[in-house]
Each structure stands twice: as C-alpha cells, then as structure tokens.
Design a protein that fits this description.
single chain, 721 residues, alpha+beta, Endonuclease, Chain A, seven-stranded mixed sheet, four-stranded parallel sheet, 25 strands, 16% strand, elongated
C-alpha cells in the first residue's frame, strides 16, 4: 500500500471501481439545471411554490435510455496484495468521509470511534421508486434503524458535539462504497473502495470482498470531490434532534414529518431536484415491507410536483401542504389504531414498543409492586363468585401465564421449525369457555391493560373466519387478537381451518404476529385435533348481577391503577429466558434431549417478580409446565370430572368387561345426547373412548383405572374407590 504520486495515477490501467451515474450531479461541472435561478424566477417560485429553470433555446430532450448512459471508470495500476485487518486498514488517520449503501450500525460505530471527525452517507439499500414519497419512507426507516441500535447513544453524542455528521441518500440508485481517510495535517491520506460495505461481515473477512486501497494524493482528491458532490446534491443531513427523539419514540419522524431529513433540506435549500423515474418496465423496484407501508400512506396525499427539464422540482410550499394533509391523516389513523394494535419486540435491541412508543423494561420495583397489588385486588374480586372459586382463580392464573407469554410464541415457533422441534410446543390459540357471567371478557380486558396500559377494541364473532384472522395476523403484532363471545356455530364452521393451520407465518419467517384468544359461553368442548393445538381454560364459577355490581368498583380500580411496570419487568426477564431457549434449540437440534417449556419459563418469571417485590406468591399462582396445559389430564379435565361425578352419583351406570379390557358407561336416557359426545371428544386418546348404541361410552379399562384413580368394582353394597 505504498503511496503513489499524482503523476502515476494516469498510468494506472486496471479497472478498480465503476462510478455509475445517470445524472449530471455526479459530474464535477454543475449542470445548467443546478445553476443559479434568476431573481424573477425566484420570485415566481415563492409565489407559486413551483420554481422555474432558466429558459433554454430548445425544449429539453427526453432522458437517454439506460443502455446509452456512460460509465465513469477509474483506471488503476495493480502493485501488490497484502494481508491485514480492518483495524490496521483504518488506523493512523483523524478524519473519515464515507459512503456506504448497506451497513451494520454497530460496526459503523466501531469505525468512527477511531476518528476525531467523521462524515458518513448512508446510501439506499434497495432500488426504489424515484419519488419523494419513497425517499421519505426510506429515510424514516434508516433513522429508525439507527436510533434503535445499541450504539445509538454514542452516535447521538457525537452528533451533538458535531464530531460526527450523518447523511441519508436521496439517490435511489446509489451503490457507492467509498472510505476516505486523512490525517489532521493532511500528510497521510487513504482511499478504500471496492465491494465492501461498512459492515462487520465485509471487514471481518466473513464473506469474500474485493477491497482496493489507494494511498496517494491524486486518488484522495478525486474521491473527495465525488464524496462532497454526492453529499451536497444527493443526500440529506440527519439531525441530532431527529435521532435523539426517535430513540425515545420510534415513530417520532412519522408524527413529525417536517423533521425527515429530505423535508429539512427542501426548507433550507428552497427546492431540490429529483430525476424522473424510468418506466416501470425498465427498473425492477424492491421495497422492504415497513417502507412500503409508509410509502402507501404518504404517496396518495403528496401534491403533484412540477417537472422542469426532465426533473421533478420539489419546493417548500407543496411540501407544507403535504405536511398538513399528512397530519390530518395521522390523526384519523390514530383513532383507529386500537383496532390493529402493535406490541413489537425487537429481539436484537432487547426492546419493546406498543404502537411505536417504547415500554420501559427497567421499571422501578416500587411501580412493579403497585401493579402486583392491582393484580391481587382483581383476583380477590372473584371471592364474590359462586361455584369452585379457588379452582377458577387457578384457571385464570393459568390463562394469564399463557397470555402474557404470547408475544414470544411466533419467535419461538420460527426457531422450533428451523431446529426440528414441534411448533405446537408454542400454542397460538387460547380458548376460555364456560357459563355466562364468569368474568371472562373482563379478565381479558384486564390482561390487555396489564400489558400495554391501553384499552384495545375486542373483536366480535363475525371476525372469526380464516380470511379475517389471516388479515388481522398481518396487521397486528404481539398483543393477542381477542375474539369475544364467540358463537357456537361460528366456532364449529371455522375452528378447524383456523386452529389447525400450524404452519402460518413459519415459511415467511415472521416473528411478531399475534396469538388468538377466544372467549365463549357457547362452546362446550374441543375435539382432540384442536385441543392439542390450543390452550383450554374452562371456567366453572360465575357471578350474579347483584354481586357483580358490588365487585365492579374493585375491578375498575384495579384496572385504572395498572401501568406497564409489571409487564415491562416480565418482558425483560423473559427475553433472557427466550434467548437461552433459542440457543438450546439450536445446539440440541440433532437429537440431544432438551424440552423448551415456555409455560415453565413464564410462570417462573412471574414468581420471581413476586419474590423480587417481597410479596408471597398467592395460593392460586404456582409454577406451571407444559403438562399442565397440554397433558392428558389437563386437556380432558372437564370430561374427567363428569365421569367421576357420574360414578359417585350412580355406580350402576358403569360395567366392566375384563376379558375385553373395557369399561362401559351407560349415559342416562333422559340426558342431552350431545353431552356424551363432548365427553368422548375431550377424554385422552389413551382411553380409546368411543360411543356405542347412542348412549354408551366405551373406554379402555386399565387406562381408565389409572386416569380416574377408580377401580370401578363393587361388592357387598360398598364401592371400591
């Protein structure tokens, strides 16, 4: 990497880099369109918002086709290849000027920390439509990625003390990778270029790259002009304000559109120029999903911009009009956002946000303690209920343990599918059923408030179709889709198609789609195919109107007192468990024994939080496991209880055929015939339960003795239990 003389540069023969430009903005000589506009034109622009260009003697020609564009080629002379590392490559210099169209923020931070001053232009990672809507969308996405990185704090600090300048490209076809280095006294200079982006994978030697290094003044001068021209004409400055506010609130730029870098440039420069897009059949556009959503929101309300000399002129006034329209659009959208809640977990950053606002994952324990008191107050309200209240509390806690863990299910299902584990270990459906007035709907509202401190719209029975559930999964995140008071016919018509769709989201590598929680007074049982895919919670207690009215104050108080403190603490602790779980699944993918028990993790974290707050774990709250949800006794609990009650009420209804190893239960002739089918559906497969003759339930005798703990034998009028 010997330094070369300026005179040697013209003799360099081999192709080093291709500086492709379809715009005269890349040229050292400014195009006529960028020359100073006359005073009259400026005045016209201020009045109309549509600045004019100088008059030309001939109409502007249509832009040349892509195939006729010329290439800028740097000629170079190969001298040597050396073995080095990225640190040595960037050592010994004070200032950095870089253009990279793809980057790893953490690596960028490492590099700029080597320099007392740095300017970095982040180019466009995707080929997108060359319009202001797309550019704004991409820039918002770029700032969001930067702000949520682990290095965001340091980058913001450098921006604040002006030792760092960051820019985002508005050139939608930029693929430059240029790193220009110089010492404070300018005695040492270096240019690094080639295929490597500013990322760890590129400079750690993880992937093959073509990296070329110049250590001569001529190369420095040439590339510095390219850098400065690109920075001034094709990029927009990222302000400290934009970064630090986006760190605090992910959707800051979406809510303050005038702070988007390109919007700021338009206000400062009075206008910018964009090249007209090529016909759609000439360019294949590629847009990431989040950017596309933003663009779809922006584009319809963007005023039509004037075209001068084959360039789109973007001026402040129409952008101000757009900002007003956008603000109103956001306001209207905010009123309906609760229909499509987004509880987003960023597993790389270790953060969580609800509808764009970060949730504190390091809350004060005093605030967590207050939330626990609210949880206890809510559960104590069940003392007003009739029936088996203590069992109902246990069932509600069991459902809560699953419900709080549901935002992690999609992520874990993704890892399970890639490492030979059954995705059914992480169930996406929960069904809470029982008689009316069991408090099911109120309990779901309580759980939603506990997780996001908001009231979210409940979905109705009409939303329970395969098409609608699929749509809701695609627009919602994290927080379960809550189907309230599901009708029996609706469940029977659609449950098979919805619940048995085990592969949803897995092949698309989706990791944040929501679970589905169902409450119903009409469902009486689930088939075996469904029960092994869904959490089942049957509530056997209920409350009358008089007691319900007395309890309403307690319930309302407990909900109003809630914040996100408890759930923030829960998620922070769960993220550690989830990380361990995914590591174990990867390391044990080839047959080693490991069972990823999400229920044990969730209930253990809840217990740990109680202990951390020096609060005894209530009787109804205990450490749970997969078997407590998906084991035979758990799934068939309601049916098992009915068989046990039937034996206690009338043992004569039971007959044993030892030779055939069969237990026969004769269902009462006057009983509802469908009840026997529900019992058969819910009993474990090991019982081999089947209905015969319309009113007889036949089971495996040996398995029945083990499951029920009953011998089913009688003598001398005394029943042997």
């Amino acid at each position: 990497m010997a330094r070369k003389n300026a005179s040697n540069l013209d003799n360099q023969i081999s192709l080093l880099d291709m500086m492709v430009s379809e715009s005269p903005e890349y040229s050292e000589e400014k195009p006529k369109e960028n020359q100073e506009i006359s005073e009259n034109a400026k005045n016209d622009a201020e009045q109309t918002g549509e600045p004019s260009h100088p008059k030309t003697s001939k109409p502007a020609k249509a832009r040349a086709s892509i195939s006729t564009q010329t290439l800028k080629v740097v000629k170079a002379l190969y001298t040597d290849t050396v073995e080095t590392n990225w640190e040595d490559l960037f050592d010994g210099f004070d200032r950095l000027y870089a253009i990279t169209f793809s980057s790893g923020i953490e690596f960028v931070n490492k590099v700029i920390n080597k320099f007392s001053y740095a300017e970095v232009v982040f180019g466009c990672e995707k080929i997108i439509a060359n319009d202001i809507a797309a550019i704004m969308s991409v820039q918002i996405d770029s700032v969001q990625r930067l702000a949520k990185s682990k290095s965001a704090g340091n980058l913001a600090s450098r921006l604040n003390n002006e030792s760092l300048q960051l820019y985002v490209s508005r050139d939608t076809k930029s693929h430059e990778k240029i790193f220009i280095l110089e010492s404070a006294d300018h005695k040492h200079v270096r240019v690094i270029t080639g295929s490597a982006n500013m990322s760890a994978s590129a400079f750690y030697g993880i992937q093959r790259e073509n990296i070329v290094c110049f250590d001569d003044e001529a190369a420095f001068a040439h590339y510095k002009i390219l850098f400065d021209t690109f920075k001034e004409t094709c990029s927009d400055n990222v302000s400290y304000k934009a970064v630090v506010n986006t760190m605090d609130k992910e959707d800051y730029l979406k809510e303050n559109i005038e702070e988007v870098p390109v919007f700021q440039s338009i206000e400062k420069q009075k206008y910018i120029f964009l090249e007209q897009a090529q016909p759609e059949d000439e360019i294949e556009y590629e847009i990431v999903a989040d950017v596309k959503k933003m663009q779809e929101l922006v584009k319809p309300i963007m005023p039509k911009m004037p075209v001068k000399a084959n360039r789109v002129v973007v001026a402040p006034e129409p952008m101000r009009v757009f900002a007003k329209r956008y603000s109103e659009t956001r306001r209207v959208a905010a009123e309906t956002v609760k229909e499509f809640p987004k509880l987003h977990i960023d597993y790389d950053a270790g953060t969580m946000a609800f509808n764009g606002e970060n949730i504190d994952l390091n809350p004060n324990l005093s605030d967590v303690t207050k939330n626990i008191k609210s949880i206890q107050k809510f559960f104590s309200g069940m003392d007003y209920f009739y029936g088996d209240v203590e069992q109902a509390k246990k069932d509600y806690f069991k459902y809560m343990t699953w419900y709080l863990a549901t935002p992690f299910m999609a992520y874990l299902r993704y890892f399970a599918s890639r490492n030979n584990y059954d995705t059914k270990l992480f169930p996406l459906f929960g069904v809470m059923y029982g008689d009316s007035n069991g408090g099911k709907t109120t309990f779901i509202k309580f759980l939603v408030k506990l997780m996001c401190n908001e009231t979210v719209k409940m979905n109705t029975t009409e939303d329970f179709t395969a098409t609608k559930i699929d749509g809701l999964k695609r627009v919602c995140e994290g927080l379960p889709i809550n189907i309230d008071d599901l009708a029996k016919t609706q469940f029977q018509s659609h449950s098979e198609r919805i619940i048995k769709n085990d592969g949803w989201g897995v092949s698309e590598w989706l990791i944040n789609y929501p679970a589905v929680s169902i409450t119903s007074n009409k469902i009486t049982s689930l088939t075996k195919d469904l029960s092994k895919r869904a959490i089942i919670c049957r509530i056997g207690a209920k409350i009358d109107n008089e007691r319900g009215a007395k309890n309403s104050k307690r319930v309302n108080e407990s909900m109003s007192e809630l914040t996100t403190a408890f759930y923030g603490e829960y998620v922070r602790r769960m993220l550690v468990c989830i990380d361990e779980m995914t590591i174990e699944m990867r390391e044990n993918a080839n047959g080693k024994e490991y069972f990823p028990d999400i229920f044990y993790a969730s209930s253990s974290v809840i217990a740990d939080i109680f202990r951390a707050c020096k609060i005894d774990l209530p009787v109804y709250a205990h450490i749970l496991s997969y078997d407590d949800y998906m084991g035979d006794k758990s799934i068939g609990r309601a049916a098992i209880e009915k068989i046990e009650l039937a034996w206690q009420a009338d043992p004569n209804k039971f007959r044993v055929d030892k030779k055939k190893n069969r237990l026969i239960y004769s269902y009462p002739q006057d009983g509802p015939w469908y009840e026997l089918k529900y019992i058969a559906d819910e009993l474990p497969n090991s019982l081999e339960a089947e209905i015969s003759g319309g009113n007889q339930l036949i089971m495996n005798y040996e398995q029945a003795q083990e499951l029920f703990g009953i011998k089913f034998r009688r003598w001398l009028g005394i029943f042997n239990l």
